[in-house]
Automatic annotation (TrEMBL):
It comes from Rhynchospora pubera. Its main location: membrane. This is Receptor lectin kinase. Promotes hydrogen peroxide H(2)O(2) production and cell death. Involved in resistance response to the pathogenic oomycetes Phytophthora infestans and Phytophthora capsici. In the C-terminal section; belongs to the protein kinase superfamily. Ser/Thr protein kinase family. In the N-terminal section; belongs to the leguminous lectin family. It is found in: Cell membrane. The keyword RNA-binding does not apply. Residues 309-587 form the Protein kinase domain. CDD domains: lectin_legume_LecRK_Arcelin_ConA (cd06899), STKc_IRAK (cd14066).
Length: 638
């Protein structure tokens, strides 16, 4: 999955340089690299890939009067090799002896530089580096990059326009709409080989600071299957060139005619992200219509229902599109309509998964999918409207403060939904994205679990599935990072996090809290060991709660989030304790700290990397020096 080079290592987050302030950490450099090659372009077809990466990071200075040096996202020949003498201002990118020699270097990097060297324009700046540590283009950043705040960066490459762009924000609720702080027009084929390495690097000199990657998502297009094969075949003989050219002309003519018909009828082909196979909408509709329950809805009625997707009707923006309020006149029903962002390959995958899986499910604590629509280039999912929004909006946003009876009811309802998915439906469903923002509340504040875009159908043995690891910062079980496997136990872990959120009224990670309270789990466990667990209760409840129920919810939350998945309960066992049908478990007085040895070879390869962090402490992760190990995909934040 992730290969660590030099001083980089994993301890709760990706750490690119040495980070113990009380030890010798000067002149440190390191890299964290995706362990498999990424196809960038084809020599045969000259086709370039588009790509986008999003990551969150923080840089924290030990001494604001003497800081350095920064971090970078880079693309280099595969495999990645950390250069010698790459500390200080060379950011782990280039050897100091050749840092400005564009002829001998072979790297493209986007640097977030925090120290002014002789070649830099300012202490804090963003730069695009082309085969040199001296940036080709830069922009100054007029606030500190090294004060420990979380930054979110998006880096995109438009292969058609040959445009490499960078966007950085320190907003608390970051969003990306295609803006950029810096861009540079460059044909990457002129600088990089067909297959590349991608990753992060950082360095310190005599000035020191921490460099951490908190979250990473990378996606790219890939050359359609068979294109290389046909290119080779066409080169074998002129007669085959002629025959294939004729056949291609016929196929394209028919396809053009078909596409024209599709446009007239409001349809167009759908690309399934993982394999880049083209599926006709008629075929997809036929497959969906085999399912019971949700129905196909027409684009026109959904456009009218949402006042043509007006901003006034917009309820929110998710990872792969916006959600709009609407009213279906024929059904006399208020609905929430999720509109997948155009061009989002992962969004298309989730659209298909959502319809196929949720259509088979019926439970009072699951959000009901009313219908679906794929017309005019739009992918639309229509749900029953939840008048009271999401759970997180009440815990952290502008929603009403939830009383204790409502909170306990929500926890039981969520557990009931997961029990149905794991044990009571025809096939076991791993949700893989249980979090407070995916728990919706109806008019009576009953919990409804939604968003099945990342869900997987498995057999009822519940065996762990090596898959595209998916989830959200703070809710992923620790074993997911080392095995790449989803399981019932990882869903139970996510439930435990939500249970603690409900009881404590705070997020899994609160960077602005006191040091011992930043991470929810260790803090709560510390109180448990002191027999003062009720000190963790949400102060806004002002003591208005049932002490025994509260104790059970917190202890069950801890039990479910035990770092060792073998020691977690099933969701049924957790429910028995919550319903006073079983005694409280005996948990260790101190937060368990397991030692994981990274087994990267067990993980599967995909073209998207998404690295999230959870609140569990992973004290040691063995570094991998092998460039031949395969890699896991960690999916997007919603």
């Amino acid at each position: 999955m992730i290969e660590f080079q030099g001083d980089a290592f994993f301890n709760k987050v990706i750490r690119l340089t040495k980070d113990e302030f009380d030890t010798s950490i000067a002149s440190s450099s390191g890299r964290a690299v995706y362990s498999q090659p990424i196809p960038l372009w084809s020599k045969t077809t000259r086709k370039l890939a588009h790509f986008t990466t999003h990551f969150s990071f923080l840089i924290k200075a030990a001494n604001y009067d003497n800081t350095g040096d920064g971090l970078a996202f880079f693309l280099s020949p595969y495999p990645s090799i950390l250069p010698n003498n790459s500390a200080e201002g060379y950011l782990g990118l280039l050897d100091s002896s050749s840092g400005s020699d564009q002829q001998s270097n072979n790297i493209i990097a986007i640097e977030f530089d925090t120290r002014q060297n002789w070649w830099d324009p300012s202490p804090d700046h963003i730069g695009i580096d082309v085969n040199s540590i001296k940036s080709t283009v830069t922009t100054n950043w007029y606030s500190s990059m090294k004060d420990g705040r979380t930054g979110n960066a998006w880096i995109s490459y438009d292969a058609s326009a040959k445009n490499l762009s960078v966007y950085l924000t320190y907003d608390d609720n970051p969003s990306f709409y295609g803006d950029s702080n810096l861009w540079y027009q460059i044909d990457l084929r002129d600088y990089l080989p067909e297959n590349i390495a991608i990753g992060f690097s950082a360095s310190t000199g005599s000035s020191i600071e921490l460099h951490e990657i908190l979250y990473w998502e990378f996606s790219s297009t890939r050359e359609p299957k068979g294109l290389m094969f046909w290119a080779i075949l066409l080169s074998l003989a002129g007669v085959f060139i002629l025959v294939c050219a004729c056949l291609t002309w016929i196929v394209l003519r028919r396809k053009k005619r078909q596409d024209s018909n599709n446009i007239e009828e409001g349809r167009e082909p759908l690309l399934v992200a993982e394999e880049d196979d083209v599926i006709d909408y008629d075929e997809l509709s036929g497959e969906f219509e085999k399912e019971t329950g949700p129905r196909r809805l027409r684009y026109g009625e959904l456009a009218v229902a949402t006042k043509y997707f007006s901003e006034a009707n917009k309820l929110g923006q998710g990872g792969f599109g916006g959600v709009y309020r609407g009213f279906l006149k024929k059904l006399k029903l208020d609905v929430a309509i999720k509109r997948v962002a155009k061009g989002s390959q992962q969004g298309k995958k989730e659209y298909i998964s959502e319809v196929k899986i949720i259509s088979q499910l019926r439970h009072r604590n699951l959000v009901r999918l009313v219908g679906w629509c794929h017309e005019r280039g739009d992918l639309l999912l229509v749900y029953e409207l939840m008048p009271n929004g999401s759970l997180d909006s009440h815990l952290y946003g502008k929603g009403v403060l939830l009383s204790w009876p409502v909170r306990f009811k929500v926890a039981l309802g969520l557990a009931s939904a997961i029990l149905y998915l794991h044990e009571e439906s025809d096939r076991c469903v791993l949700h893989r994205d249980i979090k407070s923002s995916n728990v919706m509340l109806d008019s009576e504040f009953n919990a409804k679990l939604g968003d099945f875009g990342l869900a997987k159908l498995v057999d009822h043995t519940g065996a762990a599935q090596t898959t595209v690891l998916a989830g959200t910062l703070g809710y992923l079980a620790p074993e997911c990072f080392t095995t790449g496997k989803a399981s019932k136990e990882s869903d139970v872990y996510s439930f435990g996090v939500v249970a603690l959120e409900i009881a404590c009224g705070r997020r899994p990670v609160e960077p602005k809290e006191e040091k011992d309270k930043v991470r929810l789990l260790p803090w709560v466990w510390g109180l448990y060991g002191k027999n003062t667990i009720l000190e963790a209760v949400d102060k806004r409840l002002d003591g208005e709660y049932d002490g025994k129920e509260m104790e059970r919810l917190i202890v069950v939350g801890m039990w479910c989030t035990h770092p060792d998945y073998n020691l977690r309960p099933s969701i049924r066992q957790a429910m028995h304790v919550l319903q006073f049908e079983a005694p409280l478990p005996n948990l260790p007085p101190k937060f368990p700290v397991p030692v994981y040895i990274s087994n990267l070879g067990d993980m599967g390869l995909s073209s998207m990397v998404d690295f999230g962090i959870n609140e569990s402490v992973i004290s040691e992760m063995g570094k991998s020096g092998s460039s031949s190990t395969s890699s896991a995909t960690i999916g997007p934040q919603k």
